[in-house]
Design goal:
Layout: H1 2-13, E1 18-24, E2 36-38, E3 41-44, E4 51-52, E5 68-69, E6 74-75, E7 83-87, E8 93-95, E9 112-117, E10 125-130, E11 141-144, E12 158-162, E13 173-175, E14 177-183, E15 191-192
Antiparallel strand pairs: 1-5, 1-14, 2-3, 3-12, 4-15, 6-7, 7-8, 9-10, 11-12, 11-13
Length: about 190
């Protein structure tokens, strides 16, 4: 038990500032899939994130992909005020619009935690998982093929969800967690849209 606690503490200390996300779901079609920000959500299958930089910003930061801060607290952006990440009551993992702190009532702004995966056959792995903070002990990371109409034609194949008491989709893949892949960029873009 002491070793597990030390491993969890070390994984928090030896971390980068920004990360890109991939799915850890062994033996599924989404294992290793890159998650990109688009339409205020996270999707697999898109060619990159949906970003914006106004004409009056010179120079615009180079788009580095979809980057987040540790613990999925926010998007790694340059826009003033940033963009927070939250889990909507329905389980959709979303991020706020630029210049807005609006988060729908009943959403979760925490609940993400580091999980250690031990295996006899594979090296120890650390992933990010979700547990709702409302006392229901409902959680988990899910990838669902239910893509909104406005995302049709973008290549999006699965959307990221977290288990909540109002989550009700049935055709999803349960992931073990999310891989946080460290990068050396400070921001991923000006803002994600």
């Amino acid at each position: 038990m002491k070793f597990l606690l030390l491993a969890l503490a070390y994984s928090s200390l030896a971390s980068a500032t920004t990360y890109f996300l991939t799915v850890f779901a062994p033996d599924t079609t989404v294992d290793g899939a890159l998650l990109n920000a688009a339409g205020q959500g996270f999707y697999t299958g898109t060619s990159g994130p949906a970003t914006y930089c106004p004409d009056n910003v010179n120079p615009c930061p180079k788009v580095q992909g979809t980057l987040v801060y540790e613990g999925l607290t926010g998007m790694a952006v340059e826009v003033p005020g940033g963009q927070s990440i939250y889990v909507a009551p329905s389980g959709q993992v979303e991020y706020t619009h630029a210049h807005s702190a609006y988060i729908p009532e009943g959403s979760f702004t925490g609940g993400w935690y580091n999980k250690t995966i031990l295996s006899d056959c594979e090296p120890t792995r650390y992933v990010l998982d979700f547990l709702s903070s409302d006392g229901t002990n409902i959680g988990g990371v899910k990838l669902c093929p239910d893509i909104e109409p406005w995302m049709q034609g973008t290549g999006a194949s699965f959307r990221l969800y977290a288990g909540t008491c109002h989550f009700n989709l049935t055709d999803c893949i349960d992931a073990v967690g999310l891989n946080l892949n460290p990068v050396e960029a400070d921001v991923g873009c000006w803002q994600y849209i």
